[in-house]
Amino acid sequence: MNAPSKSTPMIDIQGIVKHFGAQRVLDELDLTVRKGETLVIIGCSGCGKSVLIKHMIGILKPERGRILVGGTDIVPLSDARLLEICSQFGMVFQGSALFDSLSVWGNVAFSLTEHKRGMTHKQIDERVKYCLDLVGLAGTEGKNPAELSGGMRKRVGVARAIAHQPDIILYDEPTTGLDPVTGDTINDLIIRAQQTLHATSVAVTHDLHSAFKVGDRIAMMADGKIIAVGTPSEIWESDEPQVQRFLRIAGSAVFGT
């Protein structure tokens, strides 16, 4: 993928529409992700956040609209060209989605070995160990996913996502199902990965603590649209009724407000 200029959004979503049956999940949705930022998309469970990021990486296609990645509209691309563009993404899935038949080493090395990136076995091994060290799991290469806790599996998922040094990292509900302490460890890891790799990051979550800790900007999603975008302080002070209601209900549990 050609690197976008500083003035080119890393991801520019324009008027996308998506139905599942009679339900319109994405409704003329617009969103811009700036190069180098961490954008967090918040909203109630089931509002379409995960559907949205699956469109960003080409897993799903909209019925209408454009999705520009580095200036290239990925919607009309052939499968081969889409794979080329989307190889620049790393994705951390909600359930980690590790391959149970592979060791930790095999999971982290997967994109390096499967997509023939021209690396020697020694180079791959060094990269795997570097990524595992970055997520605090040095020495776990030989373990199987079944031997790991939920938080450790999530960290292996992050290591796998960053192994091929992607330009864009997507996080789907990165702290869901984790206790508060482990969840905050994942938040710190997202920040550390951002500072180390200088990638553009997009996270979707309903966890306000996570959103306000890791996000440079926050976008609120409701009714298939992005209804507000701004810095954490701008979102907190928003006078949009749906934003305030979400913050009041979710924030009371997280911040005690």
Describe, in plain words, how this protein is organized in 3D.
With 257 residues, the protein is an alpha/beta fold. The chain has one domain (11-24, 34-255): P-loop containing nucleotide triphosphate hydrolases (Rossmann fold, 3-Layer(aba) Sandwich). The protein has nine helices and ten strands. The longest helix has 18 residues, at 180-197. The chain starts with 10 loop residues before the first strand and ends with a helix. The model has no long low-confidence stretch (mean pLDDT 89).
SSE map:
Blueprint: E1 11-20, E2 23-33, E3 38-42, H1 49-56, E4 64-69, E5 72-73, H2 79-86, E6 89-92, H3 104-114, H4 121-134, H5 150-162, E7 168-172, H6 180-197, E8 200-205, H7 208-214, E9 217-222, E10 225-230, H8 232-236, H9 241-255
Parallel strand pairs: 3-8, 3-9, 6-7, 7-8
Antiparallel strand pairs: 1-2, 1-4, 4-5, 9-10
Helix pairs in contact: 3-4, 3-5, 4-5, 5-6
